[in-house]
Amino acid sequence: MTTATKTMPKEIYRYIEHEIINYPRMIDRINELTRKQKKNLHTPYNTLYLDTRIERLSTVVQCIENVIRNLNTLGDPYHEFIELRYWRTNSNQTMEGIAQKIHVSRRTAYNMQNRIVQMVASELGEWQ
Fold it and tell me: Which residue among 69, 70, 71, 108 has the highest number of C-beta atoms inside a 10 angstrom radius?
C-alpha cells in the first residue's frame, strides 16, 4: 500500500529554516532574558512576558537539539551540513559548494536539507 506524502507549504518551510538559522542567536537571547529575569523586574507584565518568551525560545532550541541528536546517530554528515548551510554567517556557498565540502551529491544535499526541515517541523508540531 502506497502512502501519499503531502508537501510542506513554502511559508512553513521558510519559517522552519528561519528557526534553524536563528538557533545560535536563540541561545544567546535565552541567556539574556534569563539575566533580566533574575534582576526581578517587579511588574507582572514583564515577568509574564519574560517567562513566555524564555519558554518559547527554549522549546524551539530543545526541538532543534533533539533533531540534531537524532541525525548524528545516522552517521551521515548532517551536523556539518547544518553548520555550512545555516550557521556560517559569512558563507555564501551554493548547495553545490556545500555538497562538495561534505562529499555528497547536490541532490543528496537537497535531500538532507529537506529531511532536516521536515524533522524540525515535526518536532515543533508545525507539520506532520
Answer: 71
Determine contact, residues 25/33, Cβ cutoff 8 Å.
no
Q: What is the CA radius of gyration of the chain?
A: 17
* Number of other CB atoms surrounding residue 16 within 10 Å: 25
Q: How many residues does the chain have?
A: 128
Query: Rounded CA gap, 68 and 34, in Å?
Result: 24
What pLDDT digit, counting tens, does each position of 73-118 carry? 876 788 889 989 998 876 668 899 999 999 999 999 999 999 999 9
Return the amino acid letter for 40: N
